[in-house]
Specification:
47% helix; 9 helices; single chain
Length: 377
């Protein structure tokens, strides 16, 4: 036999049965174990009692006049304040279909009459403990979400504040670059060029972080317009020329324009991210990146394929997770995506499109995305 429950932790149990003798018997036993017990002799009175003071658990008979236990349970589960209360059916009905119907209505357990009080007590205690653990889990989850929100707010504030100094650095880089032929040695000019690239990458990271947060919160408004994907891909490939270092980007523009209705800036940044990602993981001397554009019915598919180390099938979804990181090579180097691919996924899905990656470890990767032609999913 379990120890009595302390007064300060008294669970509130509502018993529902149209037979007063059953109520009296259970009430005495449960009160003797430290439970706070209320009784209702009909379904309507049970609903009223539950609405006035929601109990922690309900013991519910099935065979009652006017409103049977199934109806009472269904009504309780339809109300927001009451739907999570565990309901244990206590009934003389022993057919399998009666039990199936009880669980279908939302019951968490079923005890057949005549019952042993020890069984009732054990099941009541078990379901109350599950309820307590559920509340504790919800509280911990809410606390964790709050901490995550504070972290995200801090990161966004820092990232936002980085824009100003980066813009200043970029401006001075432009001034130096304009006059570098007259005042700088070839070696120093090379340093400035690398500096310009690094600042551009940092500005891209800043934009990805801020826009990822906006899209996660549903605050990003798409600026939709007719967009020629062929021209956009050609522009994206040309913009990577200074980063190739012996690698090649192969793209044959289509004979005719391929239009989609999309936010051109966001889609362009998706292409930049995928190209930059491919460059990062292909060898300097033999890296080959292929761009493909293919209309498919009411959608258009873009592929960015490379001959880099590739990604194992079990890791394909993780690379699109925020700060996702997976192992890809025997030397234990990591495929770290930061927010670039997360941004790509959110941007594509905001257009009603889809994104993914094919390929396998050691045989290169093929990142792809599809957009609906009319700008809708």
């Amino acid at each position: 036999m379990n120890k009595p429950i302390s007064a300060k932790n008294q669970p509130n149990v509502l018993m529902v049965d149209d037979t007063p003798a059953n109520l009296e018997l259970l009430s005495v036993m449960l009160k003797g174990r430290g439970y706070k017990v209320r009784a209702a002799v009909s379904g309507k009175l049970a609903l009223q009692a539950a609405r006035n003071d929601p109990p922690d658990l309900i013991l519910l008979d099935i065979s009652m006049p006017e409103m049977d236990g199934y109806e009472v349970c269904a009504q309780l589960k339809s109300e927001e304040r009451l739907k999570d209360i565990p309901i244990i059916f206590l009934s003389a009905l022993t057919e399998t279909m009666d039990k199936v119907k009880a669980f279908g209505a939302g019951g968490v357990d079923y005890i057949s009459k005549p019952f042993q009080f020890e069984e009732v007590e054990a099941r009541v205690e078990a379901h109350l403990e599950l309820r307590r653990q559920k509340f504790l889990l919800q509280e911990n989850y809410s606390r964790l979400r709050g901490l995550e929100q504070k972290r995200d707010d801090l990161v966004n504030m820092i990232i936002h504040d980085l824009r100003t100094p980066l813009t200043i650095i970029a401006g001075y880089n432009e001034l130096i670059t304009e006059d570098k032929k007259n005042t700088l040695s070839a070696e120093s000019a090379g340093y400035i060029s690398e500096n310009v690239k690094a600042v551009q990458q940092m500005m891209q990271i800043v934009s990805d972080v801020l826009d990822t947060s906006k899209m996660e919160e549903g605050q990003m408004t798409l600026q939709l317009a007719d967009c020629d994907l062929g021209a956009l891909l050609a522009e994206g490939a040309a913009g990577m020329a200074s980063l190739l270092k012996g690698r090649k980007i192969r793209f044959t523009p289509p004979a005719n324009p391929v239009f989609v209705r999309a936010d051109r800036e966001l889609v362009f940044r998706v292409v930049q991210n995928l190209l930059g990602n491919a460059l990062k993981y292909t060898p300097d001397d033999s890296g080959l990146i292929e761009l493909k554009l293919q209309p498919e019915g009411g959608r258009v598919r873009v592929e960015v394929s490379d001959n880099g180390p590739g990604i194992a099938p079990e890791h394909r979804q993780r690379v699109f997770e925020k700060f996702g990181q997976v192992g890809i090579r025997a030397d234990h180097k990591r495929y770290s995506t930061g927010l670039g691919l997360t941004f790509c996924k959110l941007a594509v899905e905001a257009h009603g499109g889809s994104i993914g990656v094919d390929g396998e470890a050691g045989k290169g990767s093929s990142f792809w995305f599809e957009l609906p032609v009319n700008g809708q999913g």
